[in-house]
Structures are given as C-alpha cells and as structure tokens.
C-alpha cells in the first residue's frame, strides 16, 4: 500500500468516524429527549404521592410544562448545533473562513488569532436568536425572566469586554506557545490552560462576577450569627457569606460555593433567602459546606487537570496529521502553522466523541450531592434541608417526575424523589 492510498484511507476513516459519532450521538440524545417528554407528560395529571401534601397540582403542572418546553427547544438546539458543525467542517465553512483571512493577512500568529476571533464572533451571532428566545419567550412565559432589554444589552457588552480583555490575550498566548515550544508544545500549552483556570478560580468571585451582579454581606444580624456559628462549627474559613441580587435577572433561586483558596465564598441568591426560614438557611449552607468538607472542588480540579492533559496530548498528535484536517473538510495552511485550525476542529468534534462518557461525570456529580446532603443532615436539621430543597425544586419549576434513564445520562443533581427519599430513609434510622 503506497503512502497516497494510506493517506486517503486515513482521511476517509476520520470522516467516517466523525459522521458516525455525530449521528449516533444525536440519535441517542433525541431518544433520551423523547423519553423525557413522554414520561413527564404521562405524569403531569397528578402530583406524586410522596409530595401530594407539599406540592400543589398547579406547581407540579407548571414544572411539567416548563420541562416539556425546555426539552423540545433543546432538541431544536441540538439539531441546529449539529448542522452548524457539519457546515463548519465537512461542508467547508472553516476552510473557507481561513482562506478568506489568508487573502487579507500574512500567515502567522495574528492571522490565527483573527481566525479564532472571527469564528467566535460568527458563532455568537448565530446563537443570538436562541438566547433571545430562551430569555424573552420561554423564561418570560413561565414568569422567571426579570431581564429588561437594556440590562440584557449591558450584559452582552460586558461579556464581550471580558472576552476581549481575557480571551484574546489567552488565545494569543496559547497559539504562541503551540508554535514556539517545540515537540512537546501540548504539555506547555496544557500548563498555560491550567494556570489560567486556577487564576479564574481566584479572580472570578471577587473581580469578574461583581461586574454583573451585586454581592453584599448578609445584613440580618440574627441570621448572620447563626451562619457564623455554623461555619465555625464546620471548620470553614472564607471571605464570607454573600447575598447576590439574582432577582435582577431571574426569579430562579439558587445557592453555590465558589472560589479557591483565600477567595472561596458561599453565595445565596436573594430570591432564595426571601423564602427560607433561618433553619433552612442553615441546612442549605451546611450542604454547600459539605462540598468543601468532602473536597469536591479539589477533586473536580484534579479531574479537570487529568482529562485536559489527555486532551492536549491527543491534540498534539492530531495537529501533526494532515488526514485529520482533510478528513474534517479543512485544507491545512500550506504557508504557515495549522495551530488555530487544529484547536477549532478539536473543540468542535470532541464533544461528539465524548457524548457516551457524559453519564459517568453526571453520576459522580450526583454522588457528590448525596454526600453533601448527608453532611448537612449531620450538622443541621434534615427536615429543614428537605423543606428547603422542596422550595428550590418548586421555585425553579424542576419536574418531580423525570425519566429515570434521562436522569442517569444528564442530571448533575439527583431528582427530588431520590434525594429526599434517601434523606428521609436516613431519618428513620436515627
């Protein structure tokens, strides 16, 4: 077999593997979505018996309808996203964009940065109608949207500014590293990427997030004392307990643990605090502290380090194979480096090949949530945690009757039936 024949076979194999991964992944996701739609619709008429005394039929049906609308819209987004990837790859869109820029710019770092910037800008413009529809139609219809057109535009401009101030220097540094550090450039580039992510863990809570939301220390003295005592009892030290003005954009309620090292903090949406009793606040805070106590964030960082290292190593190999580009519909630069093309192709096709390992990470996330729940029950009132979680499910219109298979594949948090059922079973043994 001559080199030309081998090259043709490898290129065709890349095309075939990508097409199979795309179609199989899309069919799987559509099958899961139809299961979810069917299951939620079948159970819409009645509140599950375990929740009948605490959730009204109206709230249950609102959650079901919200889930159905979101899932159907998600199917449209998936189909559109797959079509776009095909257009960028096998139909020649990315190759065309690269060649057009080559007509205006000499090959080199600036041209590669321009390629990534143009790709991101075009992708953002294409996604804009979907974002607008979700915000001003779906979220508005169910009473969640609080964003005005003016605030939405301000957020968009701020996001663009953050992208320019942080994204462009990062992309430039990554592309320079890819081209300047020799055979093991992928290892150096991985180091740059990990350094940036760790820096964001430090800067996001205190520098970036305040551009979009206001964060203020808890000002209810009685609640503040309770929280301080709980945090001391749990051995937790942080920059504090903050309330975020989430109601400015959405009626959804939430709480989260963010930051790393000295910048770590617990944040509650004001929409959630407005509905919780002091005991429920303690329980939700204890749940967030449970993530800290079990080192879930550190474990996720280590996992991210390991997986990204494998990804960069794979990219390092693929970027040197001409059949990788040809097989995905892209003509490599003949007068310069292919680093930007390699990055874009890898980022577009990798999600289709990793579709089938998604459930493993979802299962791990659910395990972490169960561990945090168990810690909260040990530190505070389990009944208060159950009550607070029910309020969260209700206020976020989270369906009480998701399809079990859909849950295994997608859900990062356990559904209410599993989560509350496990806690209540624990109470019975106390």
Give the strand tally.
4
Helix content: over 70%
Structural class: mainly alpha
The low-confidence parts are none
Query: What can be said about the biggest beta sheet?
Result: 4 strands, mixed
Q: Which short descriptors sum up this protein?
A:
single chain; four-stranded mixed β-sheet; about 425 residues; mainly alpha; 4 strands
Structure description:
It is a single chain. β3 (255-258) and β4 (265-269) form a beta hairpin. This protein has 16 helices and four strands. It has 430 residues and is mainly alpha-helical. It has one domain (1-430).
In short:
The protein is mostly helical and about 425 residues long. It has helices at about 5-40, 55-90, 95-105, 110-140, 150-180, 185-210, 220-235, 270-275, 280-295, 295-320, 320-325, 340-355, 360-380, 380-395, 405-410, 415-430; strands at about 215, 240-245, 255-260, 265-270. The model has no long low-confidence stretch (mean pLDDT about 85).
Secondary-structure map:
Elements: H1 3-42, H2 57-88, H3 93-104, H4 109-141, H5 149-180, H6 185-212, E1 215-217, H7 221-233, E2 241-244, E3 255-258, E4 265-269, H8 270-273, H9 278-293, H10 296-318, H11 322-327, H12 339-353, H13 358-379, H14 382-395, H15 404-410, H16 416-428
Parallel strand pairs: 2-4
Antiparallel strand pairs: 1-2, 3-4
